[in-house]
Amino acid sequence: MQNKPSPCAWCGRPVAEVSAGRRRRYCRQSCRQRAYEQRRTLAGTSIPGDAVILSAADATAVSDRAFQLRCACEDVATAVDEGAPRDELARMCADLVALARQGERLR
User: Strand, helix or coil at 42?
Assistant: First the structure.
């Protein structure tokens, strides 16, 4: 049985599994660098080290993805209430899963 890949501590994308050694926290070197830069910026401030700081554009993108996910959920609920065919519901559920995966990303 294969474990679900852990999300990148910076961007939320899946992190590739390593066969030996310590488990990776970041999906790419650039994510590792951004996390380091944020830790250095926060050093000596009252902001917790595990705080997630998003730009206004990133926060808007997260909000937009959450809205898209909610709309897709409402569409599925409506389709179920209206007795939509199984293949249409399956397609809608696949879209819902894709939107949820995109919504897991913070940046």
Answer: helix
pLDDT attached to residue 1: 47
Whose tokens are 């959920």? That residue is: 73
51 is written with which tokens?
């705080």
pTM: 0.62
Regarding predicted confidence, which is higher, 16 or 106? Answer: 16
Token reading at 88:
């249409």
Q: Can you tell me the distance from the alpha carbon of 87 to that of 89, in angstroms, rounded to the nearest whole number?
A: 5
51 band by pLDDT with thresholds 50, 70 and 90: confident
The torsion region of residue 4 among left (phi > 0), alpha (psi -120 to 50) and beta comes to: beta
- Token pair, residue 4, equals 């679900």
Q: Long-range contact list for 2-11, CB < 8 A, 24+ apart?
A: 7/104, 9/35, 10/34, 10/35, 10/107, 11/105, 11/106, 11/107
